[in-house]
Each structure stands twice: as C-alpha cells, then as structure tokens.
Q: What sequence folds into this?
C-alpha cells in the first residue's frame, strides 16, 4: 500500500496558499502606476502580474498579504485593505 | 559453488552478483571488509558499478537515497555509530519508499566506545520502517541479501531492507558457504524495474512536504505494507527454496514439539543455543530454541503459534531499551497479552553486550533459571565488582 509520496511537477500551484492570508490584502488602485515593476519584483510569492502602466494586480489565490508591494510602491498606488 | 570464505567476503561476493549500479559506504569496524571487498571487485573489473566515496555515513546514506530515487539498484553497509549517523536518512529512505539494501554489521553503541558485537544499533532503528532480518550464520547472511533485494524491489513493497549480521562473529569468521550461481540469481532476482523514479522527461517530486492533510496516510501505508508482507514474505521464501534448495521462515523452531523450556533469540547466538539444546536433549531435558529471523515486520502470528503451548519462555536480548523492558522481550510479552493460550512464564535475559561472549554455560544458566519464577531483564554474567556508588572513585 502506498500513501501520498509522489507528486507530479507543478503541484505547488494546486495548493492555494492565499488561504493563509493575514487580515489585509493589497488593492492595486491602477491610477498613478508608472510600471516600475518594483511590486512584482519584491513579491515573495511571485504572484503579481502586469506589463503596462495601471495593469498590475495580485493573484489572491497565492497572495499572503505581507504588504511588501504597498510599502515599496513609489507612487503609493497600492493600498492594504481589510478582507471583505 | 561452495567456497571457504570470510563472512564479509561472502557478503560482498553475493552483493556483487546482485549487480547494484551504485554503492556508497564509509568504512567502520566491523563492516569495513565488506565494502573494501566490493571496491576491490569494481577495481578488478569484476563488477560494473559506481562506488561513490563519501566523507561520512550520513553522506553514504544520502547518496544511496538519491541514486535509488533515480531507479538504480543500490547498496550500502555500516555499523553502530555509522548507522546512527545515517539514522535521519534511513527514516527518509523508508518514508520515500526506496528499495535500498543495507548490511548492518551489528556492533555496540558508544559510550563507552566499543567496537564489538551486540545488536543495540539495528534494534534501536526498529521503528524506522525498514525491514530487518537477523542472520545466524554466513550462509543465512548471504541468502538474506538475495531475499532482501527481491523483497525490497517488489512493486507492492518498495521498502528498504536491513540485513543484520553480528559483527566479528559473522563478519570475520570463515565458513563454508554456497555462493549461488549467477544464472540462479538472475532467475530469482530479475532486473530492477522501478515503479517510479526521478526522470527529466517525466518530472516527479519524491520526498515532498506533507502537512496534516497527507502525513498520516503516508505513514499508515508503510504500516499496512508491513502487515501485507506477513503474507508475502513466506511466498518469497518458497520461491527462494524452489531455486536454491534452502528453506527459510520468519522463525525457526528448533526442538519445540514437546519442549518445556524455550529460549527466544536472534542472530548468531542461536548457533550456540542449538548446541546446548542438543546437549541437554541427550540428557533428556525437554528444551528448545525459537530463532527470530525477521524482526520487522514482526511475525506475531508465527511466534504466537510457535510458543503458545510452551510452559516457560526465556527471551534473550542482545540490546537494551534503557529505562524499560528489553526490546525483544517486551514485544514477545505484548503479543500474548489478552490471549487464552500463553506460556506461564516469559522471563527476560540480557547478555552479550559489547562483545562479551555468550557461552554454553550462560545458556545452560538461562535454562536453569527458567525453573524459577518469572524473571524480568536479568543480566547474565554481570560483574558486580565493577559497579560503584555515584561519585565514588576507586583508587
């Protein structure tokens, strides 16, 4: 008999770790964004995507609400807001 | 092919005939001759295998874990402190369901440092998930390695096997041994077909993080596989017997039919006990031996059937569980708990620690003491003159 001992590649995506999030999550205002990508680079989960100005957003399935993106944004264009 | 060989050399020869693709080991007395001999076989071009030199037993175990995960047959050997340094990795090997075969040349554990034989090293790892066999003589040691590979690599088992052989007593003694022919071995032990392996074309993760949602089932499955093996291993012994003509079982019953007093033991001491049983039988004493060949999975039913009608049992441990009952004794006692049929007396004796000989006289002493009331954890051949009160120094 075998238990869960083997995983196919990419299994970490199935684990929606956003469920661990603290009481705050980042809200991307998408108004003063200059597409510097600092939020994307600092995100420890790598779950921020975007390319053009005012297109950046976080994937809440994996975001843990650490607030690094809001803290580093030079335009204060990301706010930490309470979970609904 | 019969040969007159040192135990270590015989084991190295048979492991060589099993053709492991990767061998990694670190030398430690009394295991050294085994891996020295394997390194020689490779150097002489007689064995096509990679011998990976490492800086510690932890690394040796890690190398065979990694190599086994890629789907190749592997081998390692160690003793005592080396086995303990491997311990963390050994639990992982079992948990990852990798069919590693390891020879443990049984040796005492420090401190005090001692290079001689007892079984504290492997017995301490009985909870690791590894299958454990204990050999009485070199022929058994050799045969158990063949059985070990076949069992470990079975697609329904996929668990590591530790073949435990008493250090010096079996590793360094020279006996006549039947080293099986390659054709017979090939018949008994087919090429290893891993049911899963690390492969860049089919990426897998082995040894992942399993949280509370998954961990229990991974461990339960090992426990369940050990239970299933209680039915499977006898079939394997049957297969072995049909090809090689030598019979094995979980336990060996030696003169048990009408026995009034029986010693239960593991490993090389069983040879001495058999001699004493023969001697006492000639004098009309109804004595016997139950040899435990397989400690994990623990063959409850076989042991129960063998001992249930015997009035007096002595369990001889060559290891301790400091602060509690001796390891084998507590398991033998536990299996009779709540049973209607059980021996009246299950006494426990400890002997042969750190290489102290277990003599024929010691064995007779155990049989004699079995006439009295139940004895728990009695040390045979203890020297009271070496014991002293705390903080007292002798001048």
A:
């Amino acid at each position: 008999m075998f238990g869960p001992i083997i995983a196919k590649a990419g299994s970490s995506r199935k684990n929606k770790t956003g469920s661990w999030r603290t009481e705050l999550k980042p809200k991307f205002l998408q108004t003063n964004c200059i597409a510097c990508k600092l939020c994307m680079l600092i995100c420890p989960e790598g779950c921020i995507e975007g390319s053009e100005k005012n297109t950046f957003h976080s994937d809440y399935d994996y975001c843990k609400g650490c607030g690094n993106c809001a803290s580093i944004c030079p335009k204060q264009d990301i706010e930490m807001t309470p979970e609904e | 092919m019969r040969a007159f060989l040192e135990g270590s050399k015989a084991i190295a020869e048979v492991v060589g005939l099993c053709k492991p693709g990767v061998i990694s080991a670190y030398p430690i007395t009394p295991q050294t001759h085994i891996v020295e001999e394997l390194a020689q076989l490779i150097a002489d071009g007689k064995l096509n295998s990679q011998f990976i030199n490492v800086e510690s037993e932890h690394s040796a175990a890690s190398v065979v874990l990694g190599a086994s995960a890629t789907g190749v047959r592997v081998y390692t050997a160690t003793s005592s402190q080396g086995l303990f340094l491997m311990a963390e990795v050994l639990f992982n090997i079992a948990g990852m369901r990798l069919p590693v075969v390891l020879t443990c040349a049984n040796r005492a554990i420090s401190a005090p440092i001692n290079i001689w034989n007892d079984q504290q090293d492997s017995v301490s790892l009985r909870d690791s998930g590894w299958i454990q066999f204990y050999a009485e003589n070199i022929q058994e040691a050799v045969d158990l390695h063949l059985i070990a590979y076949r069992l470990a690599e079975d697609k329904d088992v996929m668990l590591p096997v530790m073949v435990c052989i008493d250090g010096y007593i079996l590793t360094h003694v020279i006996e006549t041994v039947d080293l099986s022919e390659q054709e017979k071995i090939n018949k008994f032990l087919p090429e290893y077909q891993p049911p899963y392996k690390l492969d860049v074309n089919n990426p897998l993760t082995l040894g992942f993080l399993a949280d509370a949602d998954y961990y229990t089932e991974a461990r339960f499955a090992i426990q369940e596989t050990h239970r299933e093996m209680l039915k499977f291993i006898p079939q394997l012994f049957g297969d072995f017997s049909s090809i090689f003509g030598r019979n094995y079982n979980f336990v060996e019953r030696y003169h048990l039919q009408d026995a009034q007093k029986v010693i239960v033991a593991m490993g090389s001491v069983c040879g001495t006990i058999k001699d004493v049983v023969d001697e006492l039988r000639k004098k009309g004493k109804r004595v016997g031996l139950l040899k435990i060949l397989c400690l994990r999975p623990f063959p409850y039913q076989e042991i129960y059937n063998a001992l249930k009608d015997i009035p007096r049992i002595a369990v001889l441990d060559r290891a301790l569980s400091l602060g509690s009952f001796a390891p084998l004794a507590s398991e033998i006692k536990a299996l009779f708990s709540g049973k209607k049929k059980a021996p009246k007396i299950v006494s426990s004796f400890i002997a042969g620690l750190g290489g102290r000989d277990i003599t024929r006289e010691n064995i007779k002493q155990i049989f004699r003491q079995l006439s009295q009331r139940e004895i728990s954890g009695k040390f045979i051949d203890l020297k009271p003159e070496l014991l002293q009160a705390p903080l007292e120094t002798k001048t």
Observations:
- The two ends of chain B are 58 Å apart (CA to CA).
- Chain B touches chain A through 22 residues (CB under 8 Å).
- Chain B has two domains: 2-244, 251-384.
- The mean pLDDT of chain B is 96.
